[in-house]
Amino acid sequence: GENVEQHPSTLSVQEGDSAVIKCTYSDSASNYFPWYKQELGKRPQLIIDIRSNVGEKKDQRIAVTLNKTAKHFSLHITETQPEDSAVYFCAASMTGYALNFGKGTSLLVTP
Amino acid sequence: EAGVAQSPRYKIIEKRQSVAFWCNPISGHATLYWYQQILGQGPKLLIQFQNNGVVDDSQLPKDRFSAERLKGVDSTLKIQPAKLEDSAVYLCASSLGRTGRVTEAFFGQGTRLTVV
Q: A1 pLDDT band (50/70/90 cuts)?
């Protein structure tokens, strides 16, 4: 089955700096790569996703890049703010199947 | 649009007891998932339904876990008997499940289970 590796497990940045989280996946058939943000005690919420026919996608301060050849994708958050502090999960799936999640990255943005 | 509803929010049981969780997906969503999230880890799929049929239950510990989705809407997940290692948050999620296209999965608030 699909195996998703995520790094780093913890990340601490100063407010205003950029944060980058990286994931790799094992199944070349995977074609959908979402990123979820989970605040303490709350549900995971989708923040951005990318499909395999696209190499990059941006939404305001958040961007995701995908390298299908290398089977890795990354989340980039620019101009970080304290409210960006949360656990971020990457996931991978193929059409018709469930998401396989990474182990998560705990991001702390300090003022 | 109403979100994915789950109940109860919290449950504490003793080991070897049984417990059941309920999920009501977003209206019109054909696909329903149950995930187990152990503290400090990512969600792990237990079972995926498409309407009322099972798509994937390969990671469901079938000797103690069972799930059903009667009439293709609500779903229940049961654990009997519970073990200490079942302590986790049980997340239900749903998606439109359009044929030929992966669609966004929406998560419920989860049920936090503590087995003592």
A: confident
- A43, A94, A103: residue with CB nearest B108: A43
**Half-sphere exposure of residue A68, counting CA atoms within 13 Å on the CB side?**
12
Contacts of A9 (CB under 8 A, 6+ apart): A103, A104, A105, A106
Give exposure, B34-67, as e/b (b: 16+ Cβ within 10 Å).
bbbbeeeebbebbbbbbeeeebbbeebeeeebbb
* Lookup: tokens for B5: 């509803």
pLDDT in tens, B7-61: 999 999 999 999 999 999 999 999 999 999 999 999 999 999 999 899 999 999 9
Report the distance separating Cα B14 and Cα B110, nearest Å.
20
Among candidate residues B51, B28, B25, B40, the one with its CA nearest the CA of residue B87: B40
Distances in Å between the Cα of B68 and the Cα atoms of B45, B52, B56, B101, B110 are: 15, 8, 13, 25, 17
Number of residues in chain B: 116
pLDDT at A67 over 90: yes
Task: Determine the pLDDT at residue A53.
Answer: 87
> Chain A: nearest CA to B44, how far in angstroms?
7
Q: How far is B111 from chain A (nearest CA, A)?
A: 10
Give the mean pLDDT of chain B. Answer: 94
